[in-house]
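Re-run with default settings, no changes from the original entry. Doing this only to confirm the output is reproducible before filing.
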Amino acid sequence: MSHPSSFAIDVPAALVDRARRGEAGAFEQIYRLFERPVFTLALRLTGEREEAQDVLQDTMLKLFDRIGEFRGDSPFWGWLRQIAVNEALMRLRRRGRLPQTEEAVDAELENHDVMLPAAAADAALLTRALGRMADATRSVLWLYHAEGYTHDEIAGLMGRTPSFSKSQLARGTRKLRELLKIEQELSHA
C-alpha cells in the first residue's frame, strides 16, 4: 500500500481566505507549509535539483495567481499538489524528456508484483536508484507509490493510457529492485 502524500497538510480555511484576499503573510505561511513537499515531488519527477527549484517557484507563482480558482470542494493540499505535478511534467515535456510514443504492455509486466522492495525505506539508496531511471518511469513510480495516484490519473496527467502507466510501473519496480539490491550490496561491502 502507498503511504499518505507528504502534501496531506491540513490548511485552515481562514488561512486560504486570507491568501485569497491577497495577504502576503498568508502566502508566506502557505509557502512554508508546502515548500518541502513541492520541492521533493519536483525532485522525484525531474531528477534534478535545479529543475525542482524552478518547479517550486513556478508552482508557488501559479498558487499566487490562481488562489481564487480554489473552490474548497476538495482539500487545498490536493489542489496545490496537482499544480506541482503539472508543472514538473510540463517541464519534462518541454525538454523532450517524456517519451512521445505509446509503449506496448507485455502480459508478464501486467501481472508483475508492483510493491516496492523493503530497501526502498532507505531514503539515500532510494534517491540514488531513482536518479538512475528514465524520467517517465521515475515519475510513474513516484506518483503511484508516494503520491497515491491511480493508473488512470497518471495516464491523464501524462497524456497516455493506463496501460502505459502499468507498464512503466512494472518495469520501474523491477529496475528499482535490481538497483536497490546492487546499492545495498555496495553499501555493505
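Residues 101-121 have pLDDT under 50 and may be disordered. The first helix runs from residue 13 to 20.
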